[in-house]
Amino acid sequence: MSATTATIDDCRERALLLSCEGEALLGILSLPAAERPAPVLGVLIVVGGPQYRAGSHRQFTLLARRLAAAGFPALRFDYRGMGDSGGAARDFMDVTPDIDAGLQALQAEAGVPRCVVLGLCDAASAALMHWEQRRDPRVAALALLNPWTRSAASLARTQVKHYYLDRLRQREFWLKLLRGGVALQALRGLLGNMRQARQGSGAAAAVSGGSYQQRMARGWRDFPGPLLLLLSGRDYTAKEFLDNSDNDPAWQGLLRLDKVRRVDLAEADHTLSDPASEQRATASLLDWLQNLAAKKDGAS
Known about the structure:
By secondary structure, the protein is of the alpha/beta class. The protein is 44% helix and 18% strand.
């Protein structure tokens, strides 16, 4: 059996009710087979919004089972206000208590000393801001897929660089422009985005305590453990993240830190919907986790 083809038969699963500030959150815990050695790391899967614990195309259901089949307990759960959890809906900047609840449940129910927090899109952003706020010693490592760093300026820069320049190279675009078709609207859009891109992110930086992108940068810089960064090649969110890391002074040099392992998935979209990209990402994650676990075994 390969970890990338794990099914429900390769692990044990049970539902949990997590407590978070008076609300009940529903989680699904995937555990390795009983005969496996005691795990040294668990993985908390934080689901980006608006999604619930299964993820797009059951992405997180399958991932949790593959992790468990490889020996890593994994917990996926619904934020307050999402899926089957109680409470009011909220965005990724207000889920630190939810991540706290997930870590507590994973440690208590799976018996793992420490945890890896894994997130896609704005859940990756939430994981960094959780560290920036809590400095939680339970978190051994972070695994981040296509982190969300969008601002009006970064979106405009990305559209100019990766959409409009491609359009300007197309003969069809210029023919439509000469005929007065929709290309004229595209040209106006390009000019508007160029103006927005030049304005920079000063407005976001003026927010008290810094913008959420700056909070993420502080979490990234100060986090003492290993950090896995997975980036999809066919995803504007990943391109915006790279653009932001080049243009925001708070992010300068952070992707080159020794603790960072970066994996570029050239053909992947935002949620790794094609099987080849999903399998490569899972293999990279498992290789990284197994190295971490081996170091912790050696240190114990």
